[in-house]
Automatic annotation (TrEMBL), chain B:
Keywords: Cell membrane, Membrane, Transmembrane, Transmembrane helix, Transport
Main location: membrane
Protein name as it appears in the record: Phosphonate ABC transporter, permease protein PhnE
Claim: Nucleus is one of the keywords in the record: no
Stated family: Belongs to the binding-protein-dependent transport system permease family.
Spans through the membrane: 21-41, 85-105, 132-155, 241-262
This protein's record includes keyword Transit peptide: no
GO molecular function, one term: ABC-type phosphonate transporter activity
Residue stretches making up the ABC transmembrane type-1 domain: 79-263
Amino acid sequence: MQWKKPPFIANQWLRYGLLVGVVGYLVLGLNSIEVNWIRLWDGLPRGWAFVSGFLTPDFLSRGGDIWEGIVESLTMTLTSTVIGVLISVPIGVGAARNLAPTPVYLVCRSVIALSRSFQEVIIAILFVAMVGFGPLAGFLTLAFATIGFLAKLLAEDIEDIDESQAEAIRATGAGWLQLINYGIQPQVMPRLIGLSLYRLDINFRESAVIGIVGAGGIGATLNTAIDRYEYSSAAAILIIIIGFVLLAEYLSGFIRKKVQ
Amino acid sequence: MPIRDRDGSNIWQRRTSRQQWLSWFGWLLLVSLFIFCWRLMNENTLWMFVQDAPRQVIDITDRMTPPRWSYMERLWKPLWDTLNIATLGTLLGITMAVPVAFLAARNTTPSDRYVRPVAILVIVSSRSINSLIWALLLVSILGPGLLAGIIAIALRSIGFIGKLLYEAIEEIDHSQVEAVLATGASGSQVLDYAIVPQIMPAFAGISVFRWDINIRESTVLGLVGAGGIGLELSHSLNTLAWPQVSLIFIVILGTVVVSEWISARVRHAII
């Protein structure tokens, strides 16, 4: 007898059942892809054009458009994060079980669920239909998405606080607002700042996407560049996005470390 | 403890006056930055359109209800396509992400100096670019269809899975590696017997989590032509068929809720 490694899934039936299921699915799934080989072959030079575009990015010939798109994206990101945070604080407080009465709790939780369940792009489509093309629709989308993200995490954080501090404040005869200000806010503030910065980072990334459906920002510029098969401009835009994301990630990490 | 002297009696304060001034100044800076950005952003906004928004909302909701339920029979195929994009994309992403993760982890990379930065760069670029942008690019290169969607999802997944997996690899218990090494095991045997069993639960959890996110993302990939239910959404939007749009929204919502439930159950079972 030789020793053998114990399998990852202990139950034999589950193990082989899963295996059969996966193989069966793969056969079905792979068969449903229809690949147009001729189109694929035609696309190869374009793929190569894109790769070489990355090696020789063209920042200048669409420089004006790129600049406009970046400015729109950045302003959209900042304003939507600020407004989103401002709105999500009361909603987050309302969605914390230990602070809010049940009816308020339920209303706030459903606002959060509504905002979280749809993709930014879908929300953007609706806002573009409402307020027209441009960064304002993007701003509304990102602010709305921020509410779901931040309010949920803030509510969870408030539910996890050290109850004794809140009780100590209550024992001094403090009102509800004073309780929030002196008993709760100091405990959740570092995390709230950290989360807001993280969301700022996410909002910039998303601002690059929602432009595709007409909500302004660098995504619109990128979409135009790809539609015109201007791969060197597209590559330049992608490099700029990656650069900004890296910068935002680094900065927010740095500030979060300082705050916490 | 900051104390202020008022009329000869000491009063407690939360902050010293220096801290107070600093935080006041910080807020002032933020507010002025906000106002500046707001004005810059809305230079070209047509407020006439915006004033019209409440009427548009009523109008669109009116058109969206009731959803056109009979349209459902044409949605099953795109829905199946969407599930395939997400699942096959996740699988493809996993197969590419695993080697990248091993090359990026400090304790398994062949060269800390040359290979690791490249692997990290792959992870970062994949993470910063949304799958919709990947799809946009791939549709223009490969032509519209499921394949572009699958590859787009896979490319975006590399960064996510790669990052979380390499962090898991770096956090393994090193003494187990040493124990296996002490038996005279070769490099690949160490990988097989000491490292892989330790990261397996994390790996399975990460993969299922990403699959769940990919289901969400694949529902909209069709907007740029990469197949799935988003394609139907795009058709319905272009023809202003709002009752169909609302049905598609309901289907997407249902799919997302179910996939989130499955992923939560599986992760719960593993961890």
